[in-house]
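Quick check before the chapter quiz. The format below is the same one you will see on the exam, so make sure you can read both the input and the output lines.
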Amino acid sequence: MSNRPPIRLRSWHLPCFAHGYFLALAVSLTALPPPSTNAQTTPPNSAVVLDSVVAVVNNQAILASDLREEMRLAILDPNQGGASSLTRHRALDQLIGRALIEQQIREEDAQAVAPSQAEVDTRLAEIRKELPACVRQNCASDAGWKVFLAVHDLTSERVETYLRYRLRILRFIELRFRQGISISQQEIESYYHNTLLPQYSPGEPVPPLDEVAPRIQEILFQRQVNALFDEWLQNLRKQGEIEVLDPSLEASQAPPDQDGGKEGKK
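Here is the expected output.
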């Protein structure tokens, strides 16, 4: 029997967002908490750690704490390879793309793309069962999930917010870019003969066209949607006012390379 994996669909790539940052894939930009009325006066010689603004996107601040949280949340995305593989530059690119998309959603119809609690719960259940890091720690159990969250410095509320954001983005892309796209039978047949069949070894059973046609059609849909989305997000970057204030992150103002890290689509 062949070890070649069956044809499968990938989930929408969210930005890093248009370039692998889908795109995954809302992680809201955090603000400093208000001072507590019960807080004690800080001793004169005590060090005080303050949050700082690392970038501004159309007057919306991205904080250093947002950057740290984005890198922690990378553990939830198997396509990122975990938090250790997400650089500060890449994390900032994702946050910039995220801010631009969220601004557009607010200008259009945020309610139209808001996921239900049931959708969020379903996605969370999938992650707890299928995420590689979660499988190792048995996240399907409540005890294992608590350990996973503690190890990665996350909370269940933060994870839910992250998943809700990603579902919002997927629906936004679906509504905005999928409309009007049509895939012809000729395109499906071309993909079948020129892309799918060459993956099979001589003598290996080949699925009939009728059986895989719906999945091929979805793959071709996703390709076109991705192309439209990438172009749209690049235009938002060009038209927006994006200022990176942290000198060590200034290279993040440029769109990320298109050959790396696109999130898979489901």
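If your answer matched, good. The first helix runs from residue 64 to 73.
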